[in-house]
């Protein structure tokens, strides 16, 4: 039976943790490394409902994208949301491994999953940060050709919403048909100029700010905000499949309580 440390080792090869950005806190964040794992849950976020689901299913490990500990924890009590989650993990004897910006950047990570879900062709990196220890390129974002070039911004927004199961898609119409598309899972609005430099007419990301919409329209780029959850949750199922193949003795499941945190009308 594999241990938490062995699962961490697999994830470290898939998306090396030393590739994470300086602000990040990805890694093995909760639990005991030698705990044997019979069952694990994969989620985008480790929320209290996700931890409760993991406990009910008898899981020893939760693997997530977003770090369960991001800001420094000065007290571990039930008086804060983070404290309640960490206490529930500890009391349930469960570990947590979180692969964040390292999983964003690697070739088979968040952004490749997002690009493939949107059926982009001829994928390339939007921005290359460097090479990992095995000489593989890594960097945030991907660029590709639209599955059906020539769609209007409105048509493509509807397509993006359907493919991602997004609660909503907000967009600023750049005035050009959709042909060359950049994607950046999560908060990548600051990479608008990178998309422009690659000759993209459309950029799909999340957490877009007011001034970024204005800038995009001025640049003639259609900028779409499909939501943080929807643009990153696409990695969870492929990640679960990779873990299941690597550890056939572990029952790997997607968290059913892993849900979009907001609704839209």
TrEMBL record:
Keywords attached to this entry: Metal-binding
Residues holding a divalent metal cation: 65-66, 104, 228, 232
UniProt xrefs under Pfam families: DUF34_NIF3
GO molecular function, one term: metal ion binding
Metal-binding listed as a keyword: yes
Organism superkingdom: Bacteria
Gene3D superfamilies: NIF3 (NGG1p interacting factor 3)-like
UniProt similarity note: Belongs to the GTP cyclohydrolase I type 2/NIF3 family.
Protein's UniProt name: GTP cyclohydrolase 1 type 2 homolog
Species whose genome carries this gene: Flintibacter faecis
Lineage: Bacteria, Bacillati, Bacillota, Clostridia, Eubacteriales
